[in-house]
Amino acid sequence: MSTPSAGRIRARFKLNYPGFELDVDLDLAGRGITALFGPSGSGKTSCLRAIAGLERSTQGAMAYVAVNDEVWQDDTKGVFVPVHQRALGYVFQDANLFTHLSVAQNLAYGMTRIPPAQRRVSLDQAVALLGIAHLMDRQPGTLSGGERQRVAIARALATSPRILLMDEPLAALDTQRKAEILPYLEQLHSELDIPVLYVSHALDEVARLADHLVLLDAGHVTASGPTGELMTRLDLSLAHGDAAGAIIHATVSGHEPVYHLTLANFAGGRLCVPQQMMAVGQALRIRVQARDVSLTLEPQTGTSILNILPVRVVALSDDSPGQVMVRLDAGGTPLLARITRKSVNALGLVAGRALYAQVKGVAILGP
Q1: pTM score
Q2: What 3-state DSSP class applies to 43?
Q3: What is the distance of C-alpha 70 from the center of its chain?
Q4: How far apart are CA 27 and CA 15, in angstroms?
Q5: How far is 295 from 289, CA to CA, in rounded Å?
Q6: Does the pLDDT value for residue 4 go beyond 50?
Q7: pLDDT tens per residue, range 210-227
């Protein structure tokens, strides 16, 4: 295996368990959030543990792990950096805080691993990013689940990691606590240049957070690439069913306060979305569910639908006995529309057909 160039994460290993084999070869971006996604038992956590050095490859397998310009494992050269010497932060489902220490003491413990000269994330920065300054004197037992997880993430950041590994960090939280912590994860993504490997089986988390996506099934990689591309590929299960949707990367262009709406521009046009507390010029990640997109051959007037975009049919695929998933191109951005087979026939939809996509403003999901 060739040595990776800087700016990439490379991981190749093979692990055998009773009744299960993990065999992956990953070449990932060295920045942003990469989600490892798949059903339970697909190998997501095993993959993360192998990158951390918590799992060793089976005898005879030539494993290789490198994060940007640091080689942590190269079996061809007998290199294996122990877990405690790898510059990584690991966040588990359970916050795993030291219950006998205060929040401040938990964070201080994380910093002891890193000599002062090597610290790239200050304690104050980690505390501010996770919004936990008011919790510093509290004991873990007095915190909510969301607060504990925010402290755990801050503790991982306090080690100044070259990579942050997150193993389903929201899985143990209820809907309200998830909603509380997701904005902090988005803030980490926008303000820190630390690559994140994020394990999840929740598509809504992946759609909201991930730049890149690795699909795992039965211990093997079935697809890898930009999240928006994979979510709209009709040959993948992600693009089918009631949860199917697309991601639009837009820029805030204005607000209509009287209507509590925000205007956002992207290559395919302009969208009216529920009001976002964001400045003009800020990047906005928008999710559009396939079930919320209707199609028309002509732009409509006298309608309550605010978002009408010119699109072109890219491909069609059966979604259920009576429904079809249509992949659309909106100025280079892929969209999905889930419509009935009768509608497909009535509109005469074929690849290349130009028409219009209609999306209710209230149906659009912001960050």
Answers
A1: 0.89
A2: coil
A3: 24
A4: 18
A5: 14
A6: no
A7: 999 999 999 999 999 999
